[in-house]
Amino acid sequence: MASVQQVDGGGSEPATEVSEDELFEVLANQRRRFAVHLLKREEPDSIAIGDMAEQIAAWENGIETAEITGAERKRVYTALQQSHLPKMDNVGVVDFNKDRGVVEPTPALQNVDLYMDVVEGREIPWSTYYLGISGVAVALTGAVWLDAWPFVLLSDMAWMIAIVVAFTFSAITHKYYTAEMKVGEPEEPPELT
């Protein structure tokens, strides 16, 4: 569970718990994921709901912001104002001031990265990949230990180095991949790249 301190108007600082379920509910909707991406790009600054609606409408339609129509922008603006941003505010990941039309990130927004494992199309999650490579390493170690053919053709040290290289290569690839898919880092949200 992520613990977040929110400051209310009275000056006290009540602790607000943002559960994993609440974060997953926020991230379950594409428009809210796009809003999170925009806010993470703008951190620690606020963003006007109109600017947010304009960029999200452009992403949804696969066009530049200058090309969106008033109807496309209004549709997103209305949904953000009436549904998505109040829900995100209630959970505690944003501070939505409806009167000013401004959205600000909260400290809980930083925890969102911990729950994002973007898997596109037919890709497998990294956790499944590492489980698979660990299984292969165990089977290989067993075959080498039992002196099974053709594993006896290389020394035990060579096989150990091969396993270490496989895990190192996987870790470097994973690090690069997650850096490319980090919410708020690239220009477009990870699901559009």
TrEMBL record:
Membrane-traversing stretches: 129-146, 152-172
InterPro entries found in the cross-reference section: DUF7344
Pfam families noted in UniProt: DUF7344
Keyword field: Membrane, Transmembrane, Transmembrane helix
Residue ranges constituting the DUF7344 domain according to the UniProt record: 24-104
Name this protein carries in UniProt: DUF7344 domain-containing protein
